[in-house]
Design goal:
This protein is an alpha/beta fold. The chain has nine helices and 19 strands. Helices cover 26% and strands 24% of the residues. The chain binds zinc ion.
């Protein structure tokens, strides 16, 4: 019933899920770049449509609110929060009495800027599982936020400029909320600023932030996307100390790999225990993992679940293999 061809297809329906090539009708779970294809028609939340069009231009959307089920092309569908970024959704599809859930990117931990994830009981679960290796267990959120505060505080005390590298949509707004709640003045890169303004349209407010201006960083924390790390903007900041915000911080190589002073494990994805928790709560008869590692499938089978990867599962010794660099989001 489930096929994988550059995207997930529910056979016997016209519906694709996060397909990476153009289709007639596709559910787009959220507005991150790896999901952004201009299909003939896109099923998404209002927030995802707004963020998508800001980043990639006009597209033809079929909008659905969270927790509102609708009959579309002969199947019943419902979107519900994924906890990943603003507007991020999972989808529940009911076809001939079978309940199928596709999670898209998700996390179960509470977010300050995204709606809290829900878990539904289902027959077939298609689960995104980026951090599907046992050692990828994040510290409690409070501890991660404390680590961010300490990094900023220590750096400012030394008269230096704290620079946080965070993916421009989702991660950066979460970082803005955490750091401004703790009293820091923020300067943010233009792409992050524009995205934050869209968050505000949907009622997520931020304090004490401004659009980055060269030479005006005294006493402020700078938040910028990882893509600009080697740009003149960053290179020309004297006395800076940089940290990258990513779940991969749990791997020792991340700090060296990114050429930063520190790596802090703030992630918008589920860690290994959350992936197991999700399956335990959803109680599916069949689990398909997407973007996972062999260890997760193994672990689920040991717990009695019928699990298999939907596509080739990565078998790698080190997280920083060539394969990972081409297939995975390094700033997840
Ligand atoms: Zn994502």
């Amino acid at each position: 019933m489930i096929e994988y061809k550059n995207g997930i297809h529910i056979s016997g329906t016209g519906l694709w899920l996060d397909a990476q090539r153009r289709t007639d009708f596709c559910f787009v779970s959220h507005a991150h770049a790896d999901h952004a294809v201009r299909h003939t028609q896109i099923l998404a939340t209002r927030e995802t449509a707004r963020l998508f069009e800001h980043r990639y231009g006009k597209a033809n959307f079929k909008l659905l609110e969270y927790n509102q089920s609708k009959r579309l092309n002969g199947i019943k569908v419902e979107l519900f929060p994924s906890g990943h970024i603003l507007g991020g959704a999972q989808i529940l599809i009911e076809k001939a009495g079978t309940k199928i859930v596709y999670t898209g990117d998700f996390k179960l931990r509470k977010s300050l800027t995204a709606q809290k994830a829900q878990v539904r009981k289902c027959d077939i679960l298609i689960m995104e599982s980026t951090f599907g290796r046992p050692h990828l267990k994040f510290p409690p959120s409070r501890q991660v936020h404390d680590q961010m505060e300490e990094f900023a505080e220590e750096t400012l005390t030394k008269g230096r400029v704290p620079v946080f590298l965070a993916y421009s949509l989702g991660k950066a707004q979460e970082a803005m909320k955490i750091l401004s709640n703790r009293g820091f003045k923020l300067s943010v890169h233009g792409t992050i600023y524009n995205m934050a303004r869209i968050y505000e349209e949907f009622g997520v407010r931020f304090k004490n932030y401004e659009h980055y201006q060269a030479g005006n960083l005294e006493g402020k924390v700078l938040i910028a996307p990882p893509s600009v790390r080697k740009s003149h903007m960053i290179e020309n900041i004297p006395r800076k100390r940089m940290t990258v915000l990513t779940g991969w911080a749990m791997d020792k190589g991340t700090r060296y790999f990114n050429g930063v002073d520190e790596a802090i494990p703030l992630s918008d994805h589920a860690d290994f225990p959350e992936l197991l928790e999700y399956v335990r709560k959803a109680q599916p008869k069949k689990v398909y993992t997407v973007h996972g590692f062999a260890e997760l499938v193994q672990s689920l089978r040991e717990k009695g679940f019928d699990a298999e990867p939907l596509r080739q599962t990565t078998k790698i010794e080190s997280t920083f293999s060539k394969e990972l660099l081409t297939n995975y989001d390094l700033f997840a």
